[in-house]
Amino acid sequence: MLSVEQARDAILQTVRPLTATERVGLRQSLGRILVTDVLARLDVPAYRNSAMDGYAFRHVDTDLYQRFQVAGISLAGHPFHGDLDVGQCVRIMTGALVPVDADTVVMQEHVTREGDSITLQRTPKPGANVRHPGEDLRGGETLLPASRKLNAADLGLLASQGISEADVLRRPRIAFFSTGDELKGIGETLQPGDVYDSNRYTLFGMLSKLDVDILDMGVIPDQPQAVEHAFAQASRLADVVITSGGVSVGDADYVTDTLRKTGSVDFWKIAVKPGKPLAFGKLNEDCLFFGLPGNPVSVMATFLLFARPAILKLRGRKRHTLPEYLAICDTPIYKSPGRKDYQRGVYRIDEQGQWRVSTTGGQGSHILRSMSAANCFIALPLLSGNLEAGARVSVIPFTDLL
Ligand code: AMP
Ligand code: MG
User: Fold this and answer.
1) Pfam family of this protein, just one (predicted)?
2) Ligand 1: which of 188, 196, 199 to mutate, most ligand atoms within 8 Å of CB?
3) What angle do CA 195, 293, 301 make, to 5 degrees?
């Protein structure tokens, strides 16, 4: 049996990040990965402007005057274009252009105004409250570096530079289908022994968190031609193909038969619970394959542990693993040594700031409700056995995963 870490490392070694790029509009670039440095086009600020609401004047004039005549007004978007004579100032608002003749702004709270003139109550230092072009950023400097995942602030930054498009990595295309003759689609009538296909919905949900293009190929019936056709079609369209069901040892269905024929898919047993069997490999040079076990909780756990890191690497991310935090477990834990368990838990942070967790109860890999009730995995090491309440355990929050 492989350990979780060995399996994940082997998978990550196989994955080559996608390099194909596309140019997208600013809004579409949200969450996407930049492929080149983006350089500033404009100085920021672009022109000399006022940091305060107040009055702009020439500082040397204060050698002669404390009283200034207001010659005009400079508003944001409506600059003052006139000249200033000695002893004149302009009313100015925050962000407005500072007239060429002025070099200092006094805040309005530090003057008294009578009609068309002001008297300085306090004299600011020369150059006070004036922001200079390029003070925050110079044109030509790096605005955003390559490999950056663009967030809301970045979109604003690009917009502030008048940049309307970004060159980003192409999104990975992920195709998936379910296998098993017992599976029925929503709306179909269940016969004894049938279940509704839920895996395509959990996969859809988890993939939706990853900024990828999703191709749901439905349920593939247990017929050799249908299975072969589905694999051929999926591997042409997608960078990654994911199936669920039919990879357990001893399974001699058409899915495993077809995969064995490709010659480049391995069938692994991983020391993990839920989710021991996993098929992984390539359907062709450009198409990775994950055959996840069919049980509803196993699908989710193996997707998060093995497929998600691969997809993250494919889309150029550097961090692939899930963050773990230490918590005190308030409930006893039942576990047999030999596999790494990912039990379902509910964590909270108590009044002292201490992380606490309890299990959701029954941990069968068919109990999908345990995933829905949980907000974290409780990750228990390979060798660990039962634990008493009060034990320290690792938790993996589901935030941004499901
Ligand atoms: P398998 O891995 O194909 O042996 O399936 C293990 C268990 O998971 C069986 O009880 C299946 O009925 C169930 N199962 C497989 N695929 C799905 C699915 N797409 N949705 C719900 N249950 C499934
Ligand atoms: Mg099956």
Assistant:
1) MoeA_C
2) 199
3) 100
CATH number of 325-401: 2.40.340.10
Q: Where are the domains of the chain?
A: 4-20+171-314, 21-44+135-169, 49-131, 325-401
Nearest-ligand number for the alpha carbon of 278? 1
User: According to the model, what pLDDT value does residue 251 have?
Assistant: 56
Distance 203 CA to ligand 1 centre (A): 14
Q: What is the mean pLDDT of each run of 10 residues along the chain (402 residues)?
A: 96 95 97 95 95 97 93 96 95 97 97 96 96 94 95 97 96 95 93 96 97 94 87 95 82 75 87 93 94 96 97 90 96 96 98 97 92 98 97 97 96
Dihedral (C-alpha) 256, 221, 295, 322: value to the nearest 10 degrees?
70
pLDDT at residue number 261? 83
Task: Count CA atoms within 13 Å of residue 101 on its CB side.
Answer: 18
How many CB atoms lie under 10 A from the CB of residue 342? 26
Instruction: Provide the pLDDT for residue 249.
Output: 61
pTM here is 0.85
Asked: is 49-131 a CATH 2.170.190.11 domain? The reply is yes
Taking the CA atoms of the chain, what radius of gyration do you get in angstroms?
31
* Cα separation, 371 vs 201, whole angstroms: 13
Going by C-beta distance under 8 Å and a sequence separation of 6 or more, which residues neighbour residue 259?
231, 265, 267, 279, 281, 289, 291
The 3 state secondary structure assigned to 207-250 is: HHCCCCEEEEEEEECCCHHHHHHHHHHHHHHCCEEEEECCCCCC
State the Cα torsion 214-293-401-15 to the nearest 10°. -70
Task: Say which CATH superfamily domain 21-44+135-169 falls into.
Answer: Molybdopterin biosynthesis moea protein, domain 2 (3.90.105.10)
Q: What is the DSSP letter of 28?
A: G
pLDDT number for residue 120: 96
